[in-house]
Amino acid sequence: MGMSGESGEVKITRVISSYAQPIGLEVSRTQKGTYRWRIEVHGETIDDVLAKVSKLDSELRVRFLGERPTKPGVKEKPKKIEEEGVKAFVEGRKDILELIETSKMQIVKPKAWLGKEMFGEINEALKGFGFEWKPAGEESCWIKEIKAK
Predict the structure, then answer these.
(1) pTM metric for this prediction
(2) Cβ 63 vs Cβ 77: under 8 Å
(3) What secondary structure does DSSP assign to 7-33, as a single string?
């Protein structure tokens, strides 16, 4: 029977998907020490999904890349290094850096392998404070001598 012979009956099919886990997250670390992740989010609306992805990505960037936390939806201009101070710089990255201060010098030690990109960013920032990288295997660190006043 063709279209013209049908009785006009309309069949509506509704597919309802329910996911046991609305959020899937896979984090991996490469041999070079950099982190990569894959985020999978299921939600009711595109806005809901995008908000969750954005929040997760921001939290991962803070945790694994040492980025400063930002408020959702707010584009924060990065502070200039001179305004922030080395203590605040290291404090904002305390999960990956340690600051040791003596009367003669300041030492910033990485707590683990930083990876090429993160090392480069941190090295440039610390150079702005007058620090110099001293390679020494596991004891490698940035050092800044404090001049007597």
Answers:
(1) 0.45
(2) no
(3) -------------S-SEEEEEEE-TTS
Helix ranges (H only) for the chain are 46-65, 81-84, 86-91, 116-128
C-alpha 102/C-alpha 104 separation (Å) is: 5
Domain residue limits, the chain = 19-78, 81-145
What whole-number distance in Å separates Cα of residue 122 and Cα of residue 120? 6
The identity of residue 99, as a single letter, is L
Check residue 92 and give its pLDDT.
82
Q: Which residues pair with 40 in a beta bridge?
A: 24
Cα–Cα distance between 115 and 33 in angstroms, integer?
A: 5
Low-confidence ranges of the chain (pLDDT < 70): 1-8, 11-21, 68-84, 149
